[in-house]
Amino acid sequence: MLIFPEALVCMLFVPPMRQNQAVLIQDLIKQNHYKGYEHSFKFVPQEINVRSFYNLLAIDSKHFSQFDNQFLEQNMNRELLKCYFGFEVALKNAPRFPTRRWMWYIQR
Fold it and tell me: In what residue span(s) does the PARG catalytic Macro domain sit (predicted)?
């Protein structure tokens, strides 16, 4: 979200996701550029390209207090279905040309 700060505003309007939900925020403009990861993460100054739009997919995972519980069949199914729903929506709404839609709230 540091790269797309306007996505932070969208998250104010989205309630916590249920097990069968994903959030796709569309047509974001990349405000920041970076290089590296973790300790080598650095800001890279660049000009903002207002003609390029991006989509941001948010899918959550369940918290497991005991490590082994995440590998139970019901929990694995939940995580796989959540990913499937999210990626399906992201692929169907992949950016093809610039538009001004901001957010879709997706539920299966």
Answer: 2-93
Helical (H) or strand (E) element with 57: strand 54-58
Domain with 33, as residue range(s), is: 6-107
Give the separation between CA 96 and CA 83, rounded to whole angstroms: 22
Other Cβ atoms less than 10 A from the Cβ of 41: the count is 10
**Structure tokens, 98:** 């610039």
Q: Provide the whole-model pTM.
A: 0.67
The pLDDT tens digits for 88-108 are 888 888 766 555 554 555 554
Please tell me the total count of domains within the chain: 1
Quote the CA–CA distance of 86 and 58 in Å, as a whole number.
7
Sign (positive/negative) of CA torsion 17, 84, 103, 11? positive
In a domain, 24, yes or no: yes
Paired tokens of 102: 């901001």
* Residue 94 belongs to a domain: yes
Q: How far apart are CA 78 and CA 18, in angstroms?
A: 11
